Amino acid sequence: MAPARKPTPQQRDARELARTPPADPYRGTLTDPFSRPVAEPPTDSKPGDNKPAGGSSIGRDSADPIPRPPTRTPSGAPLAGILGIALGLTLGLFGLLLLTIVSLQNDYGAPDRSFYRGTDSGYVVLGLVNFVLAACCGIGGIVLMTGRLSGRIALTIGSWATILLSGFWLVDGAVRAMVPIVLAIAAATVLFFSYQRPVTYWLGVLPPPQPE
């Protein structure tokens, strides 16, 4: 049996060179970090659990969760809508009565009403104002019950204007004091039910989260 030949230094260098992997030609070049998706770290939380990985509750203990708009209609929204519709019908009736009084006075009053033209024009303007407020309260109550914020805005305008108009009637003394007082109480009740917290959440008007 022939003795094993000892490899020469050239043969050893050739074997080492063959075992050495080739160098990466792109090593050291700048790459786009968003060119390939980054693998998400594994989490130990179960599906539906809001806790982060490792079971810690960071972010939940430090701040309260942001309230979400409820899906069910709160009781305050239908009450505000119904009261707004009733208030609108009442104001519309008052406006119609004022225009009717002016029309009857022109038809069956004194032959010469030139002295009362200022009073008649004031009644006409007041009747038109009542019609505008009736539209705001009635349409606003209907729209509010559908869950739209524009309905509450219309109800707010109509209710505050009704309160101011009731104060004018109460000071003027042209009508009995009970009528403006009842109208003012009804308008204030509409505002109370419209701005309850559940109604605000239901309409989607959420307050911004406040830092601690």
Helical coverage, percent range: 55-70%
Low-confidence stretches: 51-64
Strands, total number: 0
Query: Distance between termini?
Result: 89 Å
Mean pLDDT: 75
Structural class: mainly alpha
Report the total helices: 6
State which percent range the strand residues make up: under 5%
What form results from the Cα inertia axes?
rod-shaped
**Major β-sheet, in short?**
none
Radius of gyration: 39 Å
| Element string (H = helix, E = strand) | HHHHHH
In words, what does this structure look like?
There is one protein chain. The chain is rod-shaped and about 145 Å long. It has helices spanning 9-19, 76-108, 117-145, 149-172, 178-194, 197-202. Helices cover 57% and strands 0% of the residues.
Write a compact overview of the structure shown.
The protein has helices at residues 9-19, 76-108, 117-145, 149-172, 178-194, 197-202. It is mainly alpha-helical. The chain has a domain at 76-202.
Layout of helices and strands:
Elements: H1 9-19, H2 76-108, H3 117-145, H4 149-172, H5 178-194, H6 197-202
